[in-house]
Amino acid sequence: MSHFRALAGVLRGGRVWGCQWLRGCGGGPSRRWVDPRRGCSSGSESTPSAVTSSSSYVEEMYFAWLEDHKNVHESWDAFFRNIQASSPSGEAGERRPSALLQGRVLSHSPDMAQKVIRGHHVAQLDPLGILQADLDSFVPYDLITTIDKLGVEFMFINNVDQCQWIRQKIETPGIMQFTNAEKRTLLARLIRSTRFEDFLARKWSSEKRFGLEGCEVLIPALKTIIDKSSAAGIDSVIMGMPHRGRLNVLANVIRKDLDQIFCQFDPKLEAADEGSGDVKYHLGMYHERINRETDKNITLSLMANPSHLEAVDPVVQGKAKAEQFYRGDTQGKKVMSILIHGDAAFAGQGVVYETFHLSELPSYTTHGTIHVVVNNQIGFTTDPRVARSSPYPTDVARVVNAPIFHVNADDPEAVIYVCRMAAEWRTTFNKDVVIDLVSYRRFGHNEMDEPMFTQPLMYKQIHRQEHVLKKYSDKLIVEGVVTLQEFEEEVAKYDKICEEAYTSSKDEKILHIRHWLDSPWPGLDEEVLQHIGQTASSVPLEDFKIHPGVSRILRGRADLVKNRQMDWALGEYMAFGSLLKDDIHVRLSGQDVERGTFSHRHHVLHDQEVDKRICVPMNHLWANQAPYTVCNSSLSEYGVLGFELGFAMASPNALILWEAQFGDFHNTAQCIIDQFISPGQAKWVRNNGIVLLLPHGMEGMGPEHSSARPERFLQMSKDDPDHFPEFSGDFEVQQLNDCNWIVVNCSTPANYCHVLRRQILLPFRKPLIIFTPKSLLRHPDARSSFDDLAKGTKFKRLIPDEGIGKSKPSPEQKAEKYANAELVWCQEEHKNMGYYDYVRPRFLTVVANKKSIWYVGRDPAAAPATGNKSTHLNELKRFMDTAFNLSTFQGKDL
């Protein structure tokens, strides 16, 4: 039995040793011996030997030990030393360990290796005691005498220092100690979390609130993370979370005024500010306050976000990155992000994976995010057995070598210790870390839902489950940390706070939506920008060898400048350069944006002889210019667009652009567009000036590389087709202000330059959707003169046909000229796509329905474009012939 108790050290506290090292380092047909102090370091490689049986596993460990006793954990070292000491003479020198170990380990534990591999499954993580049922054979090993309430996955991390750091934190005896003062603080926070939910349940028993019951420890957990981070120098925390527990976090972490929260439950509530508002468990908040544990100022920002659970993840990261960028916080020592997740969404929604893969990319890293998973062990009505294929909901985090701490949410001290460790990890290594709060959901998906319909056995156990506050308060009373009277007084104290706020909320008849904003903006700089007539057409670095093809492009730019002309790329260059001159930061992100999908941009030049030597000419335009950030993104639309949206939230004095590789590809980011960009101002009164560049054009490239789906953006535009606007004053600006976003399709480089500059010059911020060209990028007729950027020029909403010659008819002459004209809408897109359905009713309003509109274009279709070149050309010829020879048009009057 002594040998088994020695081996039990391998599983001590649910931690994983030995075998996880092998899995973390190995791969393919061979395994490499592992030194626990050196991580995945060198050593002799073994013959092929999968760790699938106790025999092969122990043999591998034994061979490692024979080579160097330090290659294995001290528990294995002691085990093998004992075995060797008790072996018959001569047996100890045998290189094959089978006879040495026969009857000592293998005969008693035939599947021990499997249990070692899943060692963290042995920890008592589930407060309901049902988790093992989902893990089938992974039940506690009966010879282990002490089991913790936490387990750690980290041996897949291929960094020795990081592994050793975690080992010291979890293996040092007596390290998880709390003072009486710390225990009392934890109890007070648990009281607030629990009694807040109880208060809402009593006052609004028939209202949905998506309460935190079953994982009330989340509140002290988050506060601990913030405390530890504040002590380490963090003074700004950006947070994102789903709806469950949001009101509690707002009340007890962000410290939103309770009367404003309770006011939200009033059905007679009126909104004080423009906008539709959103449900109370979607709203965010920004708050500056003193952290009482550190006596330091700290800013807490909880992002507003819709029900599309994990969609907020990249938005939070983008906003955190922006705050770090503008503060010069290059290591994330002042600004950090915290993401709270649900278990089902964390495992099921791909944007989680996309966000993780941004975590260490230079232009996207926030230098470590702390992820907290509120693991209810259930989705809406779906249990984990049919919700995911992985053992844990957190397994996706392994792709970036993030340590994962699983902890029983009914053991508050274990939770707090893990949260301290996670905060220290982030401070020390500036890498992501995951806390898996294994808990339960005391009620249904919402408080009106009946969970017994689908999870009867689980909820029978939940109904018997003692509340964590009762468990922990009883524990502290027994320990003498608090008395029963002190506990009851603390409860009564918070209950009184809630009651007073409830009374106050009845006088608060108006909800001030601005209170819910996740951050304010400073005043806008309205200084008129000066156009520039020069741009870089050479390499500003000496001894920098560029590709001959790029040399030709730069020479072409120089010729254009000499002739006072610009193509599309040069028009963009002038817009960016003029903004940088006036201290406006410009950030362009997306797939292959540095060169440009169509090889037209080349904002990053690469030395052809020196690896990784690059030049960004845009950053060499002016002595005191703002920085220009251009960065190729990962192959992600959903995650990266969300990131850039968050970045644009941080400041109005920046031009933030996301370019799709092809316009069609924005469909994989449609959630960000539908849930954040289109309705953002209406729901949360949040202005955002993000620019989407979407290549669009029907050029025979097939259904996936043609249409940016302009009809979708126009359909979601908030303007009335039956209302004719008043053309008085600055009606153009007012019309833009009234709409939810601006949608343009520029046809000249000058107009493209103007609309980008106007995005900053406008006295407000609206998302800007630009359908950009492809083949027209190099068309010799798609040029603009420098005169089109001269003083007094501006963006043209409509470019009329002026005819041949220099004469320009006045507006009255134009009206007379077109008085008897037929109205024809011609587009290259199919009839059920493009712009036709949007413009038709508006044209009819303009002519007071006294005229009809003819349609010329492609017929309705299910796919946005054909991929057959011949079909494409035939379609093009047909509608172009019709458009320019209407006498042959036999279509129906529409």
From TrEMBL:
Subcellular localization(s) per the UniProt record: Mitochondrion
According to the entry, every stretch annotated as the Transketolase-like pyrimidine-binding domain falls at 566-779
EC number(s): the record gives 1.2.4.2
User: Which GO molecular function entries does the Swiss-Prot or TrEMBL record give?
Assistant: metal ion binding; oxoglutarate dehydrogenase (succinyl-transferring) activity; thiamine pyrophosphate binding
Q: What is this protein called?
A: oxoglutarate dehydrogenase (succinyl-transferring)
Subcellular location, principal: mitochondrion
At the top level of its lineage, which domain of life is listed? Eukaryota
Sorted alphabetically, the Gene Ontology cellular component annotations on this record are: mitochondrion; oxoglutarate dehydrogenase complex
**Which family does the entry's similarity section mention?**
Belongs to the alpha-ketoglutarate dehydrogenase family.
**Keywords attached to this entry:** Glycolysis, Magnesium, Metal-binding, Mitochondrion, Oxidoreductase, Thiamine pyrophosphate, Transit peptide
Q: State if Lipoprotein is listed as a keyword.
A: no
Recorded catalytic activity of this chain's protein: N(6)-[(R)-lipoyl]-L-lysyl-[protein] + 2-oxoglutarate + H(+) = N(6)-[(R)-S(8)-succinyldihydrolipoyl]-L-lysyl-[protein] + CO2
Could you say which enzyme class this protein belongs to?
A: oxidoreductase
Does the keyword Membrane belong to this entry? no
